[in-house]
What does this fold into?
Amino acid sequence: MKKKCFKVILLLWLFLLSSFTMCYPVFALSPASDTIYQGIDVSAYQGRIDYNKVKNAGIDIVYIKASEGEHLEDPEFRNNYEKAKQNGLNIGFYHFVRARSEEQAIKEAEFFSRVISGTQPNCKLAMDFEVFGNLTENEINNISRVFLERTEELTGKEMVIYSNTYDARTIFSYELANKYPLWVAQYGVNTPSDNGKWSNWVGFQYWDKGRIAGINGNVDLDRFTKEIFLSNSGEIPAPINPSPEEIKNVIYYTVRRGDTLSKIAASYGTTVEEIVRLNNIQNPNLIFVGEVLQITTSDKPNREPTSTTTTDYTVKRGDNLWRIARRYGTTISSIVSLNNIQNPNLIYPRSNSKN
It folds into this structure.
């Protein structure tokens, strides 16, 4: 009798488990509408892109990184925008948020608006806020709200929130979900998971190792719905002029053996605290050889942190100054100065560059 009861209970349990599994798609997040546009999102990491090939590969929408933090314009932003526009692609811009206070969020919104001023995107502007450090959930949502509202005020354009499924479910508030559409990232699935806040998605980043003709290496792959498009695609207005103390140079520095943050800060006329904040460094006493740091400075470097030996390098197809600088442990500004480069965004294959 006991054996028979066990079999019945086991069968009932297996039935319930299979029923739950078959019902799982109910908990998936649906697209906002039926028409789907194929897209990618790009930054300087993709180097120079052949947008004619990208267009012919069936891509409809390209989201372009414009800026990061309070001072960093993506080195390929202008080139990406102009080439994508020339080839008839639908264009959106995104900003990578580094703010740790509402005041910094306002400055980042103003910087983002200055960078993209004079352009004509036809897709909503995107906030990419995913590195939170020690911020509380309430602080994250307040910073997000301030950045989104200030950017909308300055540009006159609608905004979208980019987020992975975990942060959409656990971090961002119902208030933000009710006001801004979602561009969600979840890899290796056909449909993103429901997060309990947004009822649908207007963007879905489904893979980070895509291969598209016209792009060397991997690129993020996305799907978008018609709700990603702006209702007003007019030119973004002229920027608010920054005060003189806000105008800073931005460089990339590759950490070398023997470096410390205090040594790097002294060399570039900045502070350890500023480097820590800008790069979201958790332990200021622990940096790694080969790590690339963003450094802002209003003055010229006091000195180069290491020796100034030069190397001849022949530019190859797909190269940009950021990649070359990272490869040789130098900075974009050093290469520009040494080679008397007039336009850092324009270098040609087979030309010799000293590093």
User: Anything to note?
Assistant: The longest strand covers residues 61-68. The mean pLDDT is 84. The chain has eleven helices and 15 strands. The longest helix spans residues 2-22.
